[in-house]
Amino acid sequence: MAELMSRSEFRVALEAAFSGTMAKDASFSRAWATGKLHKQHFVHWATNHYHYIGPFGDYLGLMYANTPDHARDAKDFLLQNMYEEELSDDRHTDLLIRFAEACGGTREYVQNRDNAMPFAKGMQGWMYYVSGRENFVVSSAALIVGLESQVPSIYRTQYPTLINKYGFSEWEAEFFDLHITSDEIHGERGYQIVLKYADTPELQQRCLHFVREAADMRFAYTKALYENYVMPDLGPWVEEDEREPALVG
Amino acid sequence: MPRIYFKTADAHVDFAEGEEVNVLRMAIREDIDVPWQCASGNCGTDRLVVEEGAENLDPPRRRERARLGELVDKGYRLACQTYTRGDVTFSWDPDQVGLDDEPGTSSGGSRAGWAGSG
Ligand code: FES
Asked: pTM of this prediction?
């Protein structure tokens, strides 16, 4: 049977749990970061992303309700995270729609659930399940450590490309800029909550299980974006240094 | 190993060579008492003076420039918006509040009193 890990051992284990399947390494993310995508691909991305993260306030609300009163710092963190998603500044989903509009999409198209892949709906269902049914420590590990804390590493590669290669203005790409930094802090605070409240070997193991599952879910979702929308235009993804010289660029 | 020295708290954080790390994240991770509120470049509570190592920081992006205005030219950075890839030293006023909450400023858009973490 697993033993209770120290905070530092548990942190290393959490980091290892998603490092093999980070979404920043999926084909869609790689095509994005290397400047291969067209604006229409971004509209599809934004539409699917809307249906995956649009209800983030709902997920956090469910987690809030599942968090006991004695974990007041965890409750406050969830409430603050919810507030930042929805009210503190521009609503985050509005920034996402602003980006889609800059790519030629419309609010109506993005918000129409029929335009999202089954994978995006599956991702949404998984988020509702974990936030509603799992212990708050486990859902924090899954959604905040496993997913939200990955965001800065993804967008830090993608944001400069959006500005320098695809020619978006900083205003149009604000969704990404905002998440690079705010999710650093949400991610870190998520770690603090999980490290503090996962205080039995069983809880620690369940957290690790769901961090792995979260990383697998997001990786598969990101890969599906490529297969559904980009592959018909660009073919299967091949890394630049593996391409035939004639295909480079 | 590169080091962030938080001079006002007399505390430091080391990180691996070749990494780029967010300054506020490292402070929170190590429980160092840097004031902050929103983590989104809105409030300015986490403005730090760069005493050394400015060349190791990434340049300020739109939100940070908009929030700090001329303070950028006076050597300030927002901890939540700043990444470093090498040694850097920061100081700050331990009692500082958000830029809109400074005496004599209007409180438009401020979230003071709501998000008390940090
Ligand atoms: S914490 Fe508010 S601007 Fe950085």
From this structure: 0.84
